[in-house]
Design goal:
It is a single chain. The protein has a six-stranded mixed beta sheet. The protein has a six-stranded mixed beta sheet with strand order 29-31-30-33-25-32. It has a five-stranded parallel beta sheet with strand order 12-9-8-14-15, sandwiched between helices. It starts with 14 loop residues before the first strand and ends in a 7-residue tail after the last strand. It folds into four domains: 78 residues, no CATH class; 260 residues, Rossmann fold (3-Layer(aba) Sandwich); 213 residues, Dimethylsulfoxide Reductase, domain 2 (3-Layer(aba) Sandwich); 118 residues, Barwin-like endoglucanases (Beta Barrel). It is globular and about 75 Å long. By secondary structure, it is α/β, with parallel strands linked by helices. It has 30 helices and 33 strands. Strand 26 and strand 27 form a beta hairpin. Helices cover 36% and strands 17% of the residues. The structure holds ligand MGD (2 copies) and molybdenum atom.
Length: 772
Amino acid sequence: MARRDTYEYDENAVVVTKNKQYAAGVPAVLVSLQRGIEQMGVARTALSLAKLNQRKGFDCPGCAWPETPGHRKHAEFCENGAKAVAEEATKRTVGPDFFAAHSIADLLGRTEYWLGQQGRLTHPMVLQPGATHYEPIDWADANRIIADELTALDSPHDAIFYTSGRTSNEAAFLYQLMIRAYGTNNMPDCSNMCHESSGSALTASIGIGKGSVSIPDIENADLILIAGQNPGTNHPRMLSTLEKAKENGARVIAVNPLPEAGLLRFKDPQKVHGVIGDGATISDDFLQIRIGGDMALFQGLAKMLVDAEDAAPGTVLDRAFIDTHTAGFDEWLDHIRRVDLDIVLEATGLKLRQLQETARALIDSNATIICWAMGLTQQTHGVATIEEAVNLLLMRGMIGKPGAGVCPVRGHSNVQGDRTMGIWEKMPETFLSALDTEFGITSPREHGLDAVEAIRAMRDRPGTVFMAMGGNFVSATPDTGVTEAALRGCSLTVQVSTKLNRSHLVHGRTALILPSLGRTDTDIQATGKQFVTVEDSMSMVHRSRGALTPSSPHMRSEVAIICGVAEALFGSDHLVPWNSFAADYDLIRDSISRVVPGFENFNTKVRQKEGFGLPHPPRDSRTFETNTGKANFAVNDLVWLPVPAGRLMLQTIRSHDQYNTTIYGLDDRYRGVKGGRRVLFINSRDIEALGYRDGDHVDLISEWTRRDGSIEERRADNFRLVAYPTPVGNTAAYYPETNPLIPLDHVADKSNTPVSKAILIRIEPCTFTNRN
Ligand SMILES: Nc1nc2c(c(=O)[nH]1)N[C@H]1C(S)=C(S)[C@@H](COP(=O)(O)OP(=O)(O)OC[C@H]3O[C@@H](n4cnc5c(=O)[nH]c(N)nc54)[C@H](O)[C@@H]3O)O[C@H]1N2
Ligand SMILES: Nc1nc2c(c(=O)[nH]1)N[C@H]1C(S)=C(S)[C@@H](COP(=O)(O)OP(=O)(O)OC[C@H]3O[C@@H](n4cnc5c(=O)[nH]c(N)nc54)[C@H](O)[C@@H]3O)O[C@H]1N2
Ligand SMILES: [Mo]
């Protein structure tokens, strides 16, 4: 399956410099101010950055890393948070004139970068069947179109409602309520492509799919393993916490195929030594692992710990914890004793000495935390890998004690809160019955579709209604060609968005763009100024209140948009008081307090200075609400990823200049790339072995073996080879340019997450002819 992408910048302009070993510092401060002023002007920049992550301000729309409790610094943000704000608070706008001047065909020829740079969406727009251009439409007419299309479907299950992770708790709660009152659980979300593997593994192992540590835990840990995560770019504020941990004596071990800046050295711009000195060294050890080797690493380490216990009984295992709080230990022990260390070395590409030192560090530590992100979750064996990380902690009793635990580092700023509010295709019965009791509705009980299943359903059953609460579904999902065809088969596509993206251009028979307020915008409703709430990666819930004047009076808040659609769909005498909810968000929170455990007295608690924390039974009381009532040791056969001769393993990553599918710029400062994104990071030995030279342009062809053994190919053309210190056989390139290479059926076991970090490819000389 071949597919050509459009890109208007000259790939020959890519400049490669030596990759930087440190993150942040003065250049980061300068970049954030410069981006802000370009997009927002001086006054908006000053106002918005002053309100970012402050108690009376708004939650950063960047990542889900918590604010430091107690003593918030004036500038509780980072370069990339400031870029995310600039992107949203831009003064540039995309309104009716823009759409009159640009046809869909024209816009389809632009890159995501160009589309995003055009500015904020200001008016509701409609694309009528067969039309070439979007035109303005009233909110009431737009809502009527949605209501009519939904009512016309044979079954509510022919509608699909996507959610990205920036949606507030209040909007998420109302959105799932509307969808369930309508009659389906088809609620795919970005989490399906993100931390679903963490949720699956943690729920089975410890009974709750959320991380068990807080900021003080990290600051007081003895040992922190950071696997499959690039915090220097994606969670820069985490570096300050890690630096604090190091000052308190923690040891940090980075597990990554790439020597990511920030993991190696970090300059805190808020500290003098960060500005003038060399910066702090964050990682004491760097385990340069092969892609997909983490499961082998964790099993190998567990075996070494078991051997150490055998040699000196009573010194390694936490017997009291194991006996009281865990199940399945003996079976697991049996299995771990049989692990073959030679295979572990081959799978990880690490040296025996490195494993021994890491095992020693685990034994010496009285408080160990394991952090991870997409390098672990977006693998076929992602769930099993995370279960192995938990095994390693359980054998030493490292859960539910200060300074120890699991730390899946979430992506989108409210992705965890959206799940808590019921955005999940498989919400448990307890939640559904509480929802039904609160509103007198009958929620459907059959599970809905996740992201991959939703694409299959749209592909196989034209005529679906697809609605998205934020995000960029077509670019974020795998198998771009298949996904595009699936969306084009829909009867209606609706995008609630802040910025223009490709999902507005790959559309159903009728399409709507509904422009929404973002985090930074002031939100005024009938009863006055409103705030919303979010939940961070460590289960802390707090307020977020926008501070900027919206760039158009036609935009509506997500809450108001949902209430408008719901009223058109259900009428004004519905069981749910949509109108009152839109007027006063306190009323939504009152309902949430009766439906969602942990939110009792929501309106009071959230008005406390630091907000409040949600219960986490393993952390709070070593209670494990699993099938055994205990923390479960998981037994998994080892999976790893050998790379066949002549082939390469490709992982798809974020550059320093993007937020998922939103491209801020064409540089990746820490990796030394400037002026372009179609690059393939590859070991110089592979370049030579395959007969190329650094700087050559190639096409990437992915090879997917179907069940019947035949091979399916997908191609993405014109990538510049960049010699880079990645393991032999392992390569990396940016997302979303590489999404056309990922087969829809290539998903993680159990979590169904697309495997974005291990795509088998080969390279061929570039066939792209239009190069200028
Ligand atoms: N500025 C900015 N911030 C963001 C985002 C953004 O795009 N831009 N995105 C947000 C979102 S939604 C998310 S989910 C997070 C993503 O945060 P990350 O997970 O840090 O993002 P990725 O760029 O996918 O990086 C994956 C990391 O895993 C490593 N890796 C790949 N394969 C393996 C493997 O097999 N084993 C190990 N040990 N490591 C591996 C890669 O080299 C890379 O360092 O960031 C959030 N924050
Ligand atoms: N190959 C590959 N694919 C991946 C990944 C990968 O690592 N590799 N990562 C996956 C991951 S972890 C994730 S989370 C997904 C991300 O998938 P999505 O969340 O769907 O994608 P984003 O690019 O974050 O969405 C950006 C759009 O959201 C809209 N938006 C921004 N803020 C708001 C807001 O406040 N309200 C509303 N209504 N709209 C808003 C804007 O219009 C913007 O264009 O991608 C996944 N896809
Ligand atoms: Mo994510």
